């Protein structure tokens, strides 16, 4: 069986929901459907979840909220009307929201419950719509689906015990429509995942029911092998391993929340990114392992990201001092700074980190402590660093990838500030000056993909 | 003024000492001479310091030691005779050694004093010889030279207060001959440096008197840009910076003890490695800074060393865990393991270390703790790793060095396990399989030097 998750733009209006219905209908394996709340229909449109948050704000501050409430209701009414469904569900929304406000819960719990109304209502509308088309579909509340979450409003985590219950969803015949983004604590309180949490719900359910495939329907045909704002219509990626996706998603590539995939990754469920507006396009598969054909391009993607800095420390005979590196990292940790990489020479080491973590005050503290505690010969900071990540599991076995990459950078007249390859051999990383990123990425793309 | 240090092979016998005298005579700037004890005259010869250590052993174990004693004495007698010097000094040795044995000092202090007899005697012989040649030379005991050391027999450290006193050696006219390898504690007890400590004495005195040059006379014309056992008669290095020397000396290149140079490095005294047997050869200069001509080869040397291993750890979302790397390094530190490099991907990191530090028991402990404390998805160890270090300060400004290097490795069909560049940009490091070292180094040498 397949679990299919449809994102906000896929359920933004009746027209989109018709596409969704056709997609579900076209494959009997699509047995469990997870939906987001309706997203934007056009550039300046407002997502339903944001309408609900505005409504919550007004309520919280004891302002009039009739207008905000009607915006939510009307958004759903237009969907229901265009799909020729009864408007019972519309009345239900108003009562539900009023009940939330009337309840004796703490204000933050009320706002949590309010945020979830978008997904919950849309799931009910979709199941009703599918039924009206003659499909055997039913709405299932996350509580009945078995999603027991930790009591962390806005950042809840799935509890292990949930998975056994979720597995039993296999026993249902017909199609289940489950709202994403929220679940319930063991005491029955509604809690939401972090924003964009419908991806998390889909991934949890796919893992729980041990689906053959987790389909994530969005509005792009597939994942591109390089940032399309730097290279015009770049090649699409057919298959990515989890590892490759992680290495790419790290440097600027936002396939989707890495956390969202954890349950699917742990259960080794293959994931497919597909386009609701072009369902015949195969999309991009994300899998645990893949066969690499000899002769095949060892590189699957090139990611780049700016806004890094490096902290350089040198000290004669540094490498004789056991604990030097550890003590340096401890100083950064005390300041709550996480680092990306630590390239090192014999008597020096650099720490590469995101520059936004280190304001001037922190920089002063860190430098002061390093001087006092590590007594280095030199310590200084360089900002304006960009990282470029060349990713592909094939690189492990193929000789010459580093040669092709360094040649491309030389040809683009880019000076390499830093190279890091070696751990997994799934990625080859370069540090360069931010100004040089576009030239570097273009040249690397040509070298590996043209 | 110049401080000239002559190593064991340079003072092994009368013939060598005649060369030394000519070298001193040929340059009025050579005002302070530091000497080792006589070294080997031929392959199977025994160094005087080893003869003294054997003598000490016999004495310590209450064995007959006449034979060992006579070996020491005869060694010096032949030198004195061949140089036509009076043999007073010879009688002095015997009495001195007997006094050491007769003293009320603890046994370890007696052995310390005994070890120093070789340098001390040779310094006296040399000054006498220089005088016999009409030079204004005198022997100066390290105590009178001002070498006050910490009370760490066999591993003594110079005390800061020494340097002011040493500076006053400038006031002497004529040539001072000072024995290397030992000094005295503030309470007047003789203590030695680590083995090979004459280099340390020379470097300390050069720094103390603020010499224009510290000459280190050995039996090689200069430092080679690559290991001569891998590449036949490779190019010689004319000038090295301290930094370059450190990067090279690290991976197999033994110019000399890095520690020995510290005083000279801190005082920015240029060092010259020269050959006693070929003094007209300019040798290799080691300096604080050097001008890099544009178009000049940015690489000064290629070093390689085997016997490394890597410890690989991967964990999904590792980079979100602040302190992960620090905790890993702490585990190694607890086992007394020092590491060389830590290349990292987004969800994995490797620690590169010398394999001899990690026996099977330690490996089990480390892996056990990593699994228990860091809960990684994967952890494993790979041995048989070699590091190749391409060194040159010029690499910072020159684009394309990494390209030349990776091309050379590709041409030699060498797979790159790891690349590390980035901290100082004085070196570019590759990790490869040990079997591939010779092919890799030969190919890199061709690419950069031919």
Automatic annotation (TrEMBL), chains A, B:
Q: Pathway involvement?
A: Amino-acid biosynthesis; L-threonine biosynthesis; L-threonine from L-aspartate: step 1/5; Amino-acid biosynthesis; L-methionine biosynthesis via de novo pathway; L-homoserine from L-aspartate: step 1/3; Amino-acid biosynthesis; L-lysine biosynthesis via DAP pathway; (S)-tetrahydrodipicolinate from L-aspartate: step 1/4
State where ATP binds.
Answer: 5-8, 218-219, 224
Q: Name one GO cellular component term.
A: cytosol
- Origin superkingdom: Bacteria
User: Tell me, what is an example of a GO biological process annotation in this record?
Assistant: lysine biosynthetic process via diaminopimelate
The UniProt annotation places substrate binding at 49, 119
* Keywords assigned by UniProt, alphabetized: Amino-acid biosynthesis, ATP-binding, Diaminopimelate biosynthesis, Kinase, Lysine biosynthesis, Nucleotide-binding, Transferase
What's its catalytic activity?
L-aspartate + ATP = 4-phospho-L-aspartate + ADP
Which residue windows are coiled coil?
none
Q: What class of enzyme is it?
A: transferase
Which residue range or ranges hold the ACT domain? 390-450
Q: SUPFAM superfamilies under this entry? A: ACT-like, Carbamate kinase-like
Q: A Gene Ontology MF term for this entry?
A: ATP binding
The cross-references to Pfam families, in alphabetical order and at most eight, read: AA_kinase, ACT_9
Mark the transmembrane ranges.
none
Q: What does this protein do?
A: Catalyzes the phosphorylation of the beta-carboxyl group of aspartic acid with ATP to yield 4-phospho-L-aspartate, which is involved in the branched biosynthetic pathway leading to the biosynthesis of amino acids threonine, isoleucine and methionine.
Q: Which family does it belong to?
A: Belongs to the aspartokinase family.
Among NCBIfam families, the record links this protein to:
asp_kinases, PRK09034.1
Q: What is this protein called?
A: Aspartokinase
């Amino acid at each position: 069986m397949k679990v299919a998750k449809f994102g906000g733009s896929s359920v933004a209006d009746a027209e989109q929901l018709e596409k969704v219905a056709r997609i579900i209908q076209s494959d009997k394996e699509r047995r469990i459907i997870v939906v987001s709340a309706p997203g934007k229909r056009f550039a300046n449109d407002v997502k339903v979840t944001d309408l609900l948050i505005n409504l919550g704000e007004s309520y919280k501050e004891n302002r009039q909220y009739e207008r905000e409430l009607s915006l939510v209701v009307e958004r759903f009414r237009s969907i229901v009307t265009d799909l020729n469904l009864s408007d019972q569900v519309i009345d239900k929304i108003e009562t539900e929201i009023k009940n939330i406000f009337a309840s004796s819960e703490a204000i933050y719990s009320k706002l949590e419950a309010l945020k979830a109304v978008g997904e919950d209502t849309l799931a009910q509308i979709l199941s009703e719509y599918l039924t009206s088309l003659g499909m055997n579909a039913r709405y299932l509340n996350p509580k009945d689906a078995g999603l027991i979450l930790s009591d962390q409003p806005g950042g809840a985590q799935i509890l292990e015990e949930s998975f056994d219950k979720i597995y039993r969803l296999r026993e249902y015949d017909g199609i289940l429509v489950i709202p994403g983004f929220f679940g319930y604590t063991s005491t029955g309180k509604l809690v939401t995942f972090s924003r964009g949490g419908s991806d998390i719900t889909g991934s949890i359910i796919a893992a729980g029911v041990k689906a053959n495939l987790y389909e994530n329907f969005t509005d792009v045909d597939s994942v591109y092998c390089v940032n399309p704002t730097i290279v015009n219509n770049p090649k699409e990626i057919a298959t990515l391993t989890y590892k490759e996706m992680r290495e790419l998603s790290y440097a600027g590539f936002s396939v989707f929340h890495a956390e969202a995939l954890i349950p699917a990754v742990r259960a080794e469920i293959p994931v497919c990114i597909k386009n609701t507006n072009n369902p015949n396009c195969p999309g991009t598969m994300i899998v645990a392992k893949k066969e690499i054909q000899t002769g095949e391009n060892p590189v699957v993607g090139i990611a780049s990201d700016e806004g890094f800095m490096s902290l350089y420390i040198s000290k004669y005979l540094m490498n004789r001092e056991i604990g030097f590196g550890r003590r340096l990292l401890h100083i950064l940790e005390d300041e709550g700074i996480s680092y990306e990489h630590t390239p090192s020479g014999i008597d020096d080491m650099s720490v590469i980190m995101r520059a936004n973590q280190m304001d001037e005050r922190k920089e002063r503290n860190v430098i002061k402590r390093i001087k006092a505690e590590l007594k280095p010969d030199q310590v200084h900071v360089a900002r304006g660093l960009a990282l470029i990540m060349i990713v592909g599991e094939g690189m492990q076995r193929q000789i010459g990838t580093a040669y092709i990459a360094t040649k491309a950078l030389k040809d683009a007249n880019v000076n390499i500030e830093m190279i890091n390859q070696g751990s997994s051999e799934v990625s080859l990383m370069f540090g360069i000056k931010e100004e040089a990123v576009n030239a570097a990425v273009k040249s690397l793309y040509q070298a590996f993909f043209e």
